Amino acid sequence: MTKIWLSVVVLIIALTGFSYIAYLSFSEHREYGKNSVEFYVLTPKELGLISELCKTEPSFSYSASDGPKPAIAVMTCELAPEEVHGFLEKSEFEKQSAVSYRRDDIEMNISSTEHGTIESIALLDYLKD
Hints:
The protein is α+β, with helices and mostly antiparallel strands. Helices cover 36% and strands 33% of the residues. It has one domain (28-125). Strands 1-2-3-7-6-5-4 form a 7-stranded antiparallel sheet. It is elongated, with a radius of gyration of 18 Å. It is built from 4 helices and 7 strands; from the N terminus they run H-E-H-H-E-E-H-E-E-E-E.
């Protein structure tokens, strides 16, 4: 009898976890910090790695893809331009312009302050058909 109850509890926990992850993935818009479940579920690997370079605490927003609209993840924090550009080039992103990089179906757009410090990076993921 104990094994049955244990199985039921494990099943309920697993279904709850799966449901929450599905809910996060299909949410139209989410805002979250680095120390959250959303960070591990929604943040693309590239932005997660770049967040290690932040001089200030990063914050994130995520917008799910919808039809031809790409999934968009934005990280906001203070970054040194040379570190970010170096990271993107090492990660095989091709420079499209002074503020845009691309690799396969992923595009990175960089926003800077008037002093040249990077304040946010938007990652657009154009999902394959």
